[in-house]
Specification:
By secondary structure, this protein is of the alpha/beta class. Helices cover about 45% and strands about 15% of the residues. Helix 2 (about 50-65) packs parallel to helix 7 (about 180-190). Bound molecules: 2-acetamido-2-deoxy-beta-D-glucopyranose (NAG) (2 copies). The site of one 2-acetamido-2-deoxy-beta-D-glucopyranose has 3 residues, from loops. Keywords: Signal. Belongs to the isochorismatase family. Pfam families: Isochorismatase.
Length: about 240
């Protein structure tokens, strides 16, 4: 009898996992959060080198205009040593809400921030922050508890060392957060190279932020005797 009950609960669990599946990003359901990517906090990031990391945080913020995602930016005590958001990020978001927190470590503890996130009307959240283990993780756990599907852009969160990042990412995964790379985020948002935004907008974006892919496209353009990759700097204008 016990064995039967156990078998039944295992089957019920398996069916519910299969039925719900792994959440996927849907650009129509997603909002973007930029969490404490402040110029002072930048100095604590040692698990990614600074040149790569500045690229990754600007790329994260640039997903907003590229995919027309409502974006909420937030900072923690920005008049102190944490400092403001980098100007590149601010320039990408002239009209997005910025919530300047005066004490709340977990952004979700700010009423103004909760209201701004809810005002997006979206059910999925893509986020990244400094540090991975505090600013990203604390908020991600709260967002899961609030019923959002949460996607952490691992390339745009940073912390003191890789072991701390790994533990933080494990903690988030344990709570049901999807932890994925910037490339996975952008490909899941796009879905199909023939969409809009698709190849015409995403290739120039990758050329700017993910040179390995940009140069693949350039090599192809050169080999096919057409030096054009694709015009513009989509997502940045
Ligand atoms: C920001 O808002 C202003 C005024 O409504 C508008 O002219 C401008 O195009 C907007 N910029 C972006 C990037 O949405
Ligand atoms: C080069 O490729 C681009 C993108 O596919 C295309 O728009 C353009 O017409 C091509 N130019 C030539 C000379 O084939």
């Amino acid at each position: 009898m016990l064995a039967f009950r156990l078998l039944t609960s295992v089957l019920v669990l398996a069916v519910s996992v299969l039925a719900s599946g792994t959440p996927r990003i849907d650009k129509n359901k997603a909002a973007l959060l930029v969490v404490d990517h402040q110029v002072g906090l930048f100095h604590m990031v040692k698990d990614i080198n600074p040149s790569e990391y500045v690229n990754n945080i600007v790329a994260h913020a640039a997903l907003g205009p590229l995919f027309n995602l409502p974006t909420v930016l937030t900072t923690s005590a920005e008049t102190g040593p944490n400092g403001p958001l980098p100007k590149e990020i601010l320039q990408l978001h002239p009209n997005s809400t910025i919530v300047r927190r005066n004490g709340e470590v977990n952004a979700w503890h700010s009423e103004e921030f909760r209201a701004a996130v809810r005002a997006t009307g979206k059910t999925q959240i893509i986020l990244a922050g400094i540090t991975t283990d505090v600013c990203t993780t604390f908020l991600a756990l709260s967002l899961v508890e609030e019923g959002f599907e949460v996607f952490a852009n691992a390339d745009a969160s940073g912390t003191f060392n890789k072991a701390i990042a790994d533990d933080a990412n494990d903690r988030m995964r344990g709570a049901g957060v999807q932890v994925l790379s910037f490339f996975a985020v952008i490909c899941e948002l796009m879905g199909d190279w023939r969409s809009t935004p698709g190849a015409a907008q995403v290739l120039p974006f990758l050329d700017r932020f993910l040179p390995s892919y940009g140069y693949l496209a350039r090599a192809h353009a050169a080999a096919t005797n057409n030096g054009t990759i694709l015009p513009g700097e989509a997502g940045l204008n």
